[in-house]
Design brief:
The complex is a heterodimer of chains A (about 400) and B (about 110). In chain A, about 70% of the residues lie in helices and about 0% in strands. With about 400 residues, chain A is mainly alpha-helical. In chain A, α10 runs antiparallel to α11 and α19 runs antiparallel to α20. With about 110 residues, chain B is of the alpha+beta class. Chain B is globular and about 45 Å long. Classes of the chains: A mainly alpha (about 400), B alpha+beta (about 110). At the A-B interface, loops of A face α2 and β6 of B.
Chain lengths: ~400, ~110
């Protein structure tokens, strides 16, 4: 099998690794789930998949063009079939609820993303040996505890899909945070990888609203990446971004997905609502044309599904835009006991206090935000805003 | 495949009548559906005795191996084809006895 793969891919390392992975996967899963009808074909297909993933990742790093391609929907949609069933099963196994979140992330990136262990370790800022152990233990647990290698039952699907999407969003956010500082290329690759995997899930589950919603959300956030950090490495907020620098193709694709979900006429889940909010923001050239009443209405929907204080904060910020800073501040202040340790809470307060002319209190809030902020781009932005106070 | 479902208690109390009834119903279900292997509730930690005979000295200590707030109060041994089935059963068990439970596979017997 290595030989035939080498013939096809011309790289012994890739072929060997892919074969080893295929056999390891077989050893892990077949005892639990039974041997597939055509074991040879299963092995070859799995190995080829891993090899293709690996090559994509390698070539992506050499060629900027190829890197851009990964973001866009360059590949024709794959027809659903036995191979896709395999990949779906693999994803659901890697994201099983019996595995810790960090384990699910590591396994998914390794088994489906094709990243090497050193790459995953670097991306999440842990030691290679730690990451190696994490993955080894996970595979051992899958085998010993008999985590089944199969599609979840119909009634379990919503919760399990939600688990997979959470893993992908975590990977995306990890990559997104990395862009604010001098980043390891592997870390900024994570957003591209998350988008690629989200595309895969969407292709495998075209009826799933939240899968579409998450992809749309990622695309609409990624579209603004270059506009989000200034040349001096400072965060540029949504209102100040050069909207000409936004990626029109990604925005168009994101909008298309949001429209599709609206047309489906089903009650939207949180990712779909967040995507819709981002769609409202990205549908105007000038921030002053933003339809804030739409944004608030969407947050009203989101709050009913997700009662977390961060969502409440973002809703309050939107209310401030719609009904004025006084009303917004009242809404935000209600969250004090829950968000006192969160820099964005203080940053939001600081901005509203500034607009209300309460400079001293604004300064204090900026100080608190700066103290709590972890990201150098954000700290630079907050510092400048504070220093502009009279 | 067999799993140990350990009941973790952090109270000093015993099962209430309502809990006992729920546990009995759950046990009946395990038997009926072919998952039952064994189950039992344990007397309190203080009734335990530890024997260490590693060096042939047969050292006896009064009390549990580890005195802890969260301790083993009972267990089920169930037969299930995979972890998903075991977890579903354990979830029902946790609900019935109103405690956290730990699901752990038995080692496979060497061929």
């Amino acid at each position: 099998m290595v030989a035939s793969l080498t013939r096809r891919f011309g790289d012994l390392d890739i072929a060997e690794e892919a074969t080893a992975e295929a056999f390891a996967a077989a050893v892990a899963r077949w005892p639990a789930d039974g041997i597939p009808p055509n074991p040879g074909a299963w092995l070859t297909t799995t190995a080829k998949r891993t090899a293709i993933d690996r090559i994509r990742r390698e070539s992506k790093r050499d060629d900027k063009q190829k890197e851009a391609q990964l973001l866009y929907d360059g590949d024709p949609p794959e027809p659903l079939g036995a191979i896709d069933d395999e990949r779906l099963r693999l994803i659901f196994t890697c994201c099983h609820p019996a595995l810790a979140m960090e384990t699910r992330v590591a396994l998914t990136l390794r088994m489906i993303g094709g990243l090497t262990v050193p790459e995953i370790a670097r991306a999440f800022l842990v030691q290679e040996t730690t990451m190696e152990k994490r993955i080894t233990r996970a595979k051992a647990k899958i085998k010993a505890a008999r985590i089944p290698y199969r599609m979840p039952a119909e009634e379990d699907l919503p919760a399990r899909v939600s688990g997979v999407l959470a893993v992908l969003f975590l990977v995306f956010n990890e990559g997104y945070l990395a862009t604010g500082q001098a980043s390891d290329p592997v870390r900024s690759d994570l957003t591209a990888e998350a988008i690629r995997l989200a595309r895969l899930i969407r292709a495998l589950m075209p009826q799933d609203g939240e899968a579409a919603g998450l992809l749309a959300l990622m695309l609409l956030i990624e579209a603004r990446r270059t506009a989000r950090v200034s040349a001096s490495g400072e965060l540029v907020t949504l209102g100040d971004q050069d909207r000409g620098a936004w990626d029109a193709a990604l925005i168009a694709e994101g909008h298309g997905l949001v429209r599709e979900r609206l047309a489906a006429g089903m009650a939207p889940g949180p990712y779909q609502i967040l995507a819709a909010i981002n769609a409202v923001h990205t549908s105007v050239r000038d921030v002053r044309d933003t339809d804030w009443s739409q944004v608030v209405a969407l947050y009203d929907q989101l709050v009913r599904l997700d009662a977390s204080p961060v969502v409440a904060l973002n809703r309050a910020i939107a209310i401030a835009e719609l009904d004025g800073p006084e009303v917004g501040l009242t809404a935000i202040d209600r969250l004090d006991d829950k968000l006192a340790g969160y820099h964005a809470y203080h940053a939001a307060r600081a901005d509203l206090l500034r607009r209300l002319g309460r400079s001293q209190q604004s300064r204090e809030a900026y100080d608190k935000a700066i103290e709590l902020a972890g990201n150098t781009a954000e700290t630079a932005y907050l510092t400048r805003r504070r220093n502009q106070l009279r | 495949m067999q799993y140990l479902v350990s009941v973790i208690d952090d109270t000093a109390g015993v099962a209430t009548p309502a809990e006992m009834a729920a546990i009995d119903a759950f046990n009946d279900r395990l038997v009926a559906e072919g998952h039952w292997v064994f189950a039992g509730g344990l007397e309190s930690q203080s009734t335990a005795t530890v024997i260490d005979n590693r060096r042939g000295a047969g050292l006896i200590t009064d009390g549990p191996f580890l005195e802890s707030k969260e301790h083993l109060a009972g267990f089920w041994i169930i037969e299930a084809p995979d972890l998903d089935v075991a977890l579903k059963l354990a979830a029902d068990g946790s609900l019935a006895c109103h405690r956290k439970v730990e699901v752990r596979p038995f080692s496979a017997e060497p061929a």
